[in-house]
Amino acid sequence: MFAITPLQLARIQFGFTVSFHIIFPAITIGLASYLVVLEALWLWRKDEVYRTLYHFWSRIFAVNFAMGVVSGLVMAYEFGTNWSHFSAAAGSITGPLLAYEVLTAFFLEAGFLGVMLFGWNKVGPGLHFFASLMVAIGTLISATWILASNSWMQTPQGFEIVNGRFVPVDWLKIIFNPSFPFRLAHMTVAAYLATALFVGAAGAWHVLQGRSSRAIRTMLSMAMWMVLIVAPLQIVLGDAHGLNTLKYQPAKIAALEGHWENTPGQSVPLTLFGLPDMKAETTRYAVQVPYLGSLILTHSLHGQVPGLKQFAPEDRPNSTIVFWTFRVMVGLGLLMVLLGVWSLWLRWRRRLFKSSLFLRFALLMGPTGLIAILAGWMTTEIGRQPWVVYGLLRTKDAVSNHSVLALSLTLIVFVVMYFAVFGAGISYMLKLVAKGPDEAEAGGAPHRRGQSLRPARPLSAAPDDVDLAIEPPKQK
Fold it and tell me: How far apart are CA 406 and CA 400, in angstroms?
């Protein structure tokens, strides 16, 4: 009979809330930097199309930012409610790191967010650009502290264990732990790539709908340039991250490759597809390419990596899951490279905005950046199991003492509330995207003197082409 444990429920609950949360900071990081680029181009070139796009995407940014903050608060509470033993053991390290994130990043974002969203006609262009820049920098600093905390859990150093508690002795080693630079670079670029695909899909959708203003063509063009540059870069960063993981977490590499044991004197093949069987200790129906595993994993034709059988069964990650989440991430990454190369070829042929097949492909690729981030996060976190602090604190020893009933009920509440609240928020954000940039602004039509191009209501999907202070309603 099927039975589920409190540990499994606690992991499912945290995984569910993190899966919802992670998509919002990713888009926030990307859009914040995109808005800075748009405003910089407007200040430099004085081309209204960039200001039009800034106004349009700042609305989506505002909604996304709000949902990211709300979903992040839930996670912070879960550390205490569901993982109290982890908090007690490692709180002296993870607690300050999260506090630094609030002090140096969240306060910076909150301090300048109001100026960015509402200050277009209330401050000078230089100060407004500075506010946008500070919000973008704040998102990057926030990612830095969060990833420093998570990376320390993956590759811990700079501490001593006193009475079962992790006591910090060297904060520089804690922050700049061995996996931190690779995770920070990989996640930041993933956020930029996911945002570029989102923006590109929005532009492609409008072009397919017959709305091809200069603003829409510009945002599609900029997004495709970003995909072309960043997608191959992400593959390079992923390779470097993989080499780092092989050094510090070899069991994870063995699990995501479905690699069980080495044959003396033979190279490691790359398993393209298969079904890892944890009980039988084999990967069934494996489709393999000789030598390619050694070449990718060790950069040598004859290099070998540890197999899962070299680790005790209780120390092995679940290969059945991470084998496929890793392939989803890599497969989508290759499609992103294809999208960028295809856009370059069409640009050269002057058909970037005319190829309906390409535009449909760009539209379908819109959510793939976020799907790849979720797949990568699952690969990283499930691949770390059974440890919450790698090699030192097991997940089963970190969970709180809750009953199955309590965790089941709260999980149901989370699922219902998240789909209701964030489903409505995402739906509204997509409604803003579907509305598109103002066609009068996008076409470069002149505006009356004193009329603001800055939306008076950044969260509103209502038209902003009427300024009541200038054009009062007519009396019947």
Answer: 12
The pair of three-digit structure tokens given for residue 352, joined into one six-digit string: 């970037």
In sequence order, the β-bridge partners of residue 88 are: none
Task: Measure CA 374 to chain center.
Answer: 7
66 within domain boundaries? yes
Range of the domain at 166: 23-247+324-383+415-442
Best CA proximity match to 379, nearest among 427, 320, 419, 430: 320
In 116-222, which ranges are E strands?
Answer: 159-162, 165-168
Diameter of the chain by CA atoms?
Answer: 91
Q: How far apart are CA 255 and CA 319, in angstroms?
A: 4
Cα(308)–Cα(342) distance, rounded to whole angstroms? 39
Structure confidence at residue 270 (pLDDT): 85
17 falls within a domain: no
Separation between Cα atoms, residue 420 and residue 418, nearest integer Å:
5
Question: What pTM, to 2 d.p., does this model score?
Answer: 0.88
Q: What is the per-residue pLDDT across 272-294, written as a single tens digit (0 to 9) for each?
A: 888 998 888 888 998 888 888 88
Instruction: Count how many domains the chain has.
Output: 1
The per-residue DSSP string of 82-98 comes to T-HHHHHHHHHHHHHHH
